[in-house]
Amino acid sequence: MRKQVITKILIALMILATGSISAQNDSKKLSPTDYSIAKISAATAKGDLETLSDALHEGLDNGLSINKIKEELVHLYAYCGFPRSLMAINTLTDVLENRKERGIEDEIGEEPKDLTEGDKYEIGKEVLAELTGVEDRPNAGYAETVPIIEVFLKEHLFADIFKRGVLSFKEREIATISALITMGNLAPMLRGHIGIGMRLGVTETQILQILDYIDTEIDQESALEGRELVATLISGVPQDSETDAADYDKKKIFAKGEKIDAPVFTGTAWLNFLVTADEVNRNAAGVVTFEPGARTYWHQHPNGQIILALSGVGYYQEKGGSKRILKKGDVVKCPADIPHWHGASPNEEFVQIAITSRVDGATEWMDAVTDEQYRE
Ligand code: MN
After folding, report:
1. Taking a C-beta distance cutoff of 8 angstroms, is the pair 194, 219 a contact?
2. CA geometry: angle at 296 spanning 291 and 299, to 5°?
3. Which pLDDT score is estimated for 235?
4. Is this prediction's pTM over 0.90?
5. How far apart are CA 334 and CA 306, in angstroms?
6. How far is it, in rounded angstroms, from Cα 298 to Cα 278?
7. From the DSSP assignment, how many helices (H) and strands (E) are in the chain?
8. Separation CA 198–CA 50 (nearest Å)
């Protein structure tokens, strides 16, 4: 429970940090029709028909054609299933009738095309390559287990559906991203589609805009989970060539601080001392950034220690125990007087907050963690 609360606080801080960056890119917000596509998708995926009805009216008012909306609800059946799609189509029927009664004439728009020629599997493969920018992707694990699902994905989703036109690939991806965030617990697919969306020109600001909508109108929990995933993508991947080191550093919650110049670390580590202990609060707190491969020597704390993992991939090991992998949000309550070490994994840096009381004495340092021990 405590872990969840801390995770939420950290995410909130991360969101504040990324929010300030996004504020500079207001001009890059979604167009009204793209925003309506995202709203319709989230409400459909949630099955929130009242919110969907509002989103459909707003979309039509914004100039989204009837056929674009119909096409979006067809597209969505591939992502959230026929039941959600059919409920949404029924809602669209009601909305269109209501508008007709009120004398509103909405634009019908482009008609979809049926795929009648060519090898659907090959067409689907080409569409997927166009979306991802990668030719001949190796088959995913699910395709090894159940090969037919990969055939259905290519022939049906990426050929039959994607080739119907009416919606651009970018519009389809906006709908998909919004649906996947809403449904939740779909990190690998969401990560993939955010990558595709960004390739097609969807910006970080626009994804945050979709998250804000889902947060306030659809599902707070899903929005929170989506923000966590987006935060890892944004902090891990520089957005463009102009992103310099200083800019990248700003996206982190805390500054890196000073390089640690102590003979009790292997490799390079940085310390930003956040809180000094005093008579009232006996805990000191600091952020440590371990560069890949960097780690502490074996040591122990007379009052134990709390480690909060902020980003990257790290290790924690108590003497005689097995090595634990630490990722963002992990919490370690290290017992008093137990020899242990912590640090980064070989290929990724690790950022942690250490909370340490020294009421019963300072940290006691021992030997270096040998390469053999580190790799074990
Ligand atoms: Mn320690």
Report:
1. no
2. 165
3. 54
4. no
5. 6
6. 26
7. 13, 12
8. 30
Q: Does domain 243-375 have CATH number 3.30.420.10?
A: no
Ligand 1 geometric centre to CA of 293 (Å): 17
Burial 226-262 (b: 16+ CB within 10 A, else e): bbbbbbbbbbeeebeeeeeeeeeeebbbbebbeebee
| Residue 341 CA, ligand 1 centroid: distance in Å | 6
Interval between CA 337 and ligand 1 midpoint (Å): 10
Q: How far, in Å, is the centroid of ligand 1 from the Cα of 331?
A: 13
Other C-beta atoms lying within 10 Å of the C-beta of residue 71: 23
**Sites in the chain below the pLDDT cut of 70:** 1-27, 234-251
CA of 325 to the centre of ligand 1 (A): 15
300 CA distance to ligand 1 centroid (A)? 6
> What is 2-112+165-233's CATH topology?
AhpD-like (1.20.1290)
**CA 252 to ligand 1 center in whole angstroms:** 23
> For residue 109, how far is its CA from the centre of ligand 1 (angstroms)?
64
Domain spans in the chain, listed from the N-terminal domain onward: 2-112+165-233, 243-375
DSSP letter for each residue of 169-233:
HHHHHHHHHHHHHHH-S-HHHHHHHHHHHHHTT--HHHHHHHHHHIIIII-HHHHHHHHHHHHHH
| DSSP letter (8 states) at residue 331 | E
Amino acid in position 196: I
Residues with CB under 5 A from ligand 1 (ion): 305
Segment 84-118, tens digit of pLDDT:
999 999 999 999 999 999 999 999 999 999 888 88
pLDDT tens digits, 347-372? 888 999 999 998 999 899 999 999 99
- Structure confidence at residue 14 (pLDDT): 47
Cβ neighbours of residue 90 closer than 8 Å, sequence gap 6 or more: none
Spacing, Cα 305 to ligand 1 middle (Å) = 6
Measured in Å, residue 26 CA sits from the centre of ligand 1 at 43
